[in-house]
Amino acid sequence: MAGRVENINKDILRQCREQIGLSLDEAGKKVPKISEMERGDQKPTFKQLDALAEWYKVPRWVFISDHLPEKYRIDKSIPAFRRLADSNADFFSDYKVRALTARVERFRNMILELHEDMGEAFRAFDPPDVSESATPFHAAQQVRNWLKVSNERYAFTGWKEKLEQKGVFVFMTGRYKGWSYIVPER
User: Fold this and answer.
1) 8-122: CATH number
2) Where exactly are the structural domains of the chain?
């Protein structure tokens, strides 16, 4: 029998699962005894703990903490991805959106720490002032004015460069090949 991990905080297990957007049934597909672990009736193995840490996007030491460290809390006030009204409702599951958000937030923090370590200051972000009631055409025009571009077309690298000039960090990944996958330019 595999060794079991002592002193797991069952409340932290539950909080991590809930904040990443997984139900007990969904988490149970990866770790079958998760409900017993969250009740404190069973201790996880190291393998189970590693699986949960990977799924919940936290290091495994978080599960023995007294409280969920601020660094590993997912801010639910961060806007989610837009969904098209006529599209599949499960286009992005809550889990996928929250997992990606957690990953990007960690990269963001690493970049901020890197700039701080290098003694480089970040300039204050000054986004375009786009009214919530603006039509898509007017909102796009306001963003184009902010980026100082007219109606010319740009390849992805051109838009990336314009955004980075405004202090926007553009996070790219080649792992997700869903609807938004962009084939690299040749």
Assistant:
1) 1.10.260.40
2) 8-122, 129-186
115 has a pLDDT exceeding 90: no
Query: Tens digit of pLDDT for each residue in 34-64?
Result: 999 999 999 999 999 999 998 888 888 999 9
Q: Which two tokens stand for residue 28?
A: 């149970």
Structure tokens at 37: 């672990």
Tokens of 18: 């809930």
112 or 77: which carries more pLDDT confidence?
A: 112
C-beta neighbour count of 36 within 10 angstroms: 15
In the structure encoding, which two tokens stand for residue 71, read together? Answer: 């660094």
- pLDDT digit string (tens) for 12-23? 999 999 888 888
pLDDT category, 175, cuts 50, 70, 90? low
Q: Which amino acid is at 55?
A: W
Residue from 179, 3, 183, 185 nearest 92 by CA: 179
- C-alpha 169/C-alpha 156 separation (Å) is 14
